[in-house]
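Researcher: I need the complex structure. Ligand is manganese (III) ion. Inputs:
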Amino acid sequence: MIQNLQNANFINFKTMKRQNFLTILIVLIPVLSFGQFKLPDLPYRYSALEPYIDSTTMHIHHDLHHATYISNLNKSLEKYPELYKKELLQIIQHIDQLPTDIQTAVKNNGGGVYNHSFFWKIMAAPGTAPMSAVLEKRLIDNFGSVDAFKAEFEKAATSRFGSGWAWLIKEPSGKLRIVSTANQDNPLMVDAIVKGIPVLTLDVWEHAYYLKYQNKRAAYAKAFWNVVNWTEVERLIGK
Ligand code: MN3
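Model: Output:
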């Protein structure tokens, strides 16, 4: 009987300790990670872009690739925690002003974080954010026709050697222009060959399309038009 009671007390004590430990952990995790960059949720379900971009690709792309850029960005800033307080846009626009030992890591991982967060936002479920007449006119004014715009964008996507991104950007003059960048670079970075505000992008890294399209990047770029959030593109272009 005494033995049983002791066992019971012992077990209770152990359980209590574990609970305390868990409580401390739950309190500490947000404190320790305070200010660090976090993975944003997708603005739609993983299957929302089906059949053009499949749910498995979205899971791997968001939960693994994008998440890895986040954790590597946080790791690369560990030596300079004051940088966690900055806006990511501020950081990636002025990589040349960062300590030299982290510039490459922040360019690659900060670019990866920014580009993916942006990419998710300019897509939407098929048919839910069609192109308005206003945006159509803007594209015609800039590129001659919507088809010519799409053809030039697809060319930027397919002719980018290796990994990178195709972009529609707005130049300071208001002119729209199509460019492509290598790796996780983007047109906001200080060393971009052509600078401008991104209003549309397509990830042309193989991880973005290989499961469904294998080596057919051109087919992926064509399918992309079905999932563009034209409402958001128009909003970003503004006046
Ligand atoms: Mn990607």
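Model: Summary of the prediction. The chain has two domains: 55-121, 133-237.
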